[in-house]
């Protein structure tokens, strides 16, 4: 009999990969607020390991344009279909009201990919930024984490015009692994182009990107990605550990030790990023407001290991 081929599994998680379980009064209040307004968060949809810590601290990353993505990246747990759900035109106001009720002074807004919409959802994104700002008399800072809008420069320009505090877009992984990790409609060069356009339209707008590690990349490839990002003026970099959300997704090739994250953060600092946040549990919007206010505003390179 032919020996049955064994399915490869991710290695066992090391001790340093521990996250807090959701709980506590503040966590419950945040969850209730979001449920009542029928709002989505990337914290839940992407199964973020920091959900307990961030919600327990009264912080959440709002995900607009529904909870169904029109792309199917092999690392992501968000639901996928050819068409997303109908756009809630009241969503910008709901998010603005939630941000005020939660007492936030810094919010992160992200979205699924909406290739089924003519503008990829850029208009709704811009409206959300403007509504949050207006409702708080510009007291709430708004960071956005956007899709690539299929490489549509007009969509990017519309969001730059809305003046977010930080414009983030993730390249996700190194150049070589991008076709394996991301949906075919995404691309390493296309993501770099989005970030480049932001700086061309507003050189003073802080830009941010992120890499997941543990997918088989080498240090040299990480350095190349850092250099590519700095070449187009990206200011902020986050480095985190890829975690396999389900058995249907890409396996983890390696769990990166915290000491290696610290060394990579120093390499990023040398290359001139305003700050680099690196650590096994770091995600793009993890402690975004705290890190921006403490480190980016200083205008000096900072390497932060978390």
Question: Can you put this structure into words, describing what you see?
Answer:
This protein is α/β, with parallel strands linked by helices. The chain has one domain: TIM Barrel (Alpha-Beta Barrel). It is 35% helix and 15% strand. It has eleven helices and eleven strands. The chain has helices at 25-36, 42-45, 51-56, 91-101, 122-135, 153-161, 178-181, 188-201, 219-231, 258-270, 288-294, and strands at residues 40-41, 61-64, 68-69, 79-80, 106-111, 141-145, 166-168, 207-213, 236-241, 275-278, 302-305. Strands 1-2-5-6-7-8-9-10-11 form a nine-stranded mixed sheet, sandwiched between helices. α10 (258-270) links the parallel β9 (236-241) and β10 (275-278). Residues 1-5 have low confidence and may be disordered.
Quick take:
With 306 residues, the protein is of the alpha/beta class.
Key terms for this structure?
11 helices, disordered N terminus, single chain, globular, two-stranded parallel ribbon, TIM Barrel
